[in-house]
Amino acid sequence: MNVISSQNRRTLIAVLITLLVVCEVIAYVATTPRPQEKFFQLYVLGAKRMAADYYPNNDTDIRLGESVHWYVGVTDNMGNVQLVVIRVKLGNQTIPSPNDTQATPSPAPLVTEFSRFIQNNETWEFPFVWQIVNAVPVDGSTRILELAINDETFELQGPSARDGYNFRLIIELWTWDVESAAVQFGWQADGERRVAWLQLWFNATTSLR
Amino acid sequence: MVAVLAIMSFVAMQPSMVKSQTIETLEPRFGQTLALVHQAESAGATSTEIGALVVLLNNALELYGDALKLTAPDEGQRRAELVAQVDQILMTVENRAADLTALASQRSYTNRVLTYMWGAIAAVLGTILYAFTMSFYRKYRVKRTFQMRVTRK
């Protein structure tokens, strides 16, 4: 019968304790979720689902009734389900853009919004087809009165642009804030508010011709 | 008999009267439901389980959007139906999210305990392996020692 010497016993106990610590640390790391950076991605693609061909015939001058095909997408990397609201606003050159540092949205008039619940790591992409339905000249400026987005027409009291130059569609990302129980511009991550927005410029100089 | 029928029909009507919701009260309901879904996610629900809830939430959101578009006075009936449907879907999501939270937290706890147990078992197996290896090594060293030959130089 083999008798383990006291020195061997001590060695074995030391090995057991070391392995126990190592294995339990591995178990802890395996079962504890790693903190991930929380953010959203917001993008607009052109007619061919690429970052190109945003305007028909590559002409930023949009005519009345001319359809412009885009794709708007959002990816949720917040680590949980989010209620996402995409707000589309019509602006001109003088209306302020959203403020990144103060996390305030643009005061440009809202045209429409799209909302959806998306899961973590899920991308929600939808076609965004728009056209100018009605525009009028006002004192040397062009005012867009009706804009159609995805077969729905929206009446606007929107801004005018000098000679029809430098209109822009501002696309803002809003999310449901659980703490304030309201939809807010941007999202809360690591104790600070972050925002995502895009703008695409266009002209409507030939709309009235 | 008539009185019994009247009481029964009144009792049957009660839940629908209690559950009736207006469009204005539904928006915070979405937030409450989302908070319950977050709880289920934190408890460790899988993306497939959460995905099923997200599909229901988006159905409710779509119906809610349709209800918001019905503003004409003659569309009141249709609007009330849509609001009731949204309310029903949200209630389903809330119930499933609560069930999922309980299930997922139990599952996460079991998985955690099992993982730690496997860690302990691996440590014991490692120690036994070490003991056998050392034992064989010592026997080998003793055997080699006895196989040595002393030669004169």
Q: How is this structure best summarized?
A:
Chain A has 209 residues and is mostly beta strands. Chain A has one helix at residues 6-31, and strands at 39-45, 68-77, 82-91, 110-118, 123-138, 141-149, 152-155, 160-162, 167-177, 182-185, 187-189, 192-194, 197-202. In chain A, strand 11 and strand 12 (192-194) form a beta hairpin.
Question: Can you put this structure into words, describing what you see?
Answer:
Chain A is mainly beta and 209 residues long. Chain A has one helix at residues 6-31; strands at residues 39-45, 68-77, 82-91, 110-118, 123-138, 141-149, 152-155, 160-162, 167-177, 182-185, 187-189, 192-194, 197-202. Chain A has two domains: 1-32; 39-202, Immunoglobulin-like (Sandwich). Chain A contains one helix and 13 strands. Chain B is mostly helical and 153 residues long. Chain B has one domain (20-147). Chain B has helices spanning 2-19, 23-42, 47-69, 76-147. In chain B, helix 2 runs antiparallel to helix 3 (47-69), helix 2 packs parallel to helix 4 and helix 3 (47-69) packs antiparallel against helix 4. Chain B starts with a helix and ends in a 6-residue tail after the last helix. Mean pLDDT of chain B is 85; it is low at 7-21. Chain A binds chain B through residues 2, 8, 11-12, 15-16, 19-20, 22-24, 26-27, 30-31, 80-81, 83, 115-121, 176, 178, 181-182, and chain B through 28, 30-31, 34-35, 37-38, 41-42, 47, 50-51, 53-54, 57-58, 61, 65, 111-112, 115-116, 118-120, 122-124, 126-127, 130-131, 134-135.
